[in-house]
Design goal:
This protein has seven helices and no strands. By secondary structure, it is an all-alpha fold.
């Protein structure tokens, strides 16, 4: 009798937990559980946030550019520099008002000259270009009214 009661107990437990899970709302359907497409889009838009997330990635990649230059790995510096461009431009989708300053201060001249300096693999040119890129970033922050962003250790890298 003891041998039969244990498997029966396990079977009841499995059956009960299966029924309970089937009745529960799908916890993985945070988007699909929304009542309308408008609510779904609002959830997605809130999740993706604003320009702060692309700028966070830019900051991380900026540090990686610095590390690559300290190792004289100019290909890696160039790789991250290209990804910085992609990240900022993708950020325009979320905040199109950021595009005019980014384009005029950063992409219409500075970005290309920095890329060319990294591509040259010339140590002096690369470091000079790094400083030029930093200056463009800081100027863009000031133009966007977020100059306080320039007061962080990221911009003390030399």
């Amino acid at each position: 009798m003891r041998n039969l009661s244990r498997p029966l107990l396990v079977a009841y437990a499995l059956m009960f937990s299966t029924v309970s899970l089937a009745q529960a709302e799908n916890p993985k359907g945070w988007i699909l559980n929304a009542e309308s497409n408008e609510e779904r889009f609002q959830l997605i838009q809130g999740y993706l946030r604003g320009f702060d997330q692309p700028m966070w990635e830019v900051g991380e990649r900026y540090e990686k550019v610095y590390e690559a230059l300290t190792r004289e790995n100019y290909k890696l510096a160039g790789y991250h520099w290209r990804k910085i461009k992609t990240t900022i431009q993708n950020g325009y989708l979320k905040r199109p008002k950021r595009q005019p300053n980014a384009d005029s201060i950063f992409f219409n001249g500075t970005w290309k000259s920095v890329k060319e300096a990294f591509d040259s693999a010339d140590k002096k040119k690369a470091w000079k270009a790094f400083e030029e890129g930093k200056g463009a970033c800081m100027a863009c922050h000031r133009a966007e009214g977020v100059g306080y962003m320039n007061d962080q250790s990221l911009f003390e890298l030399k």
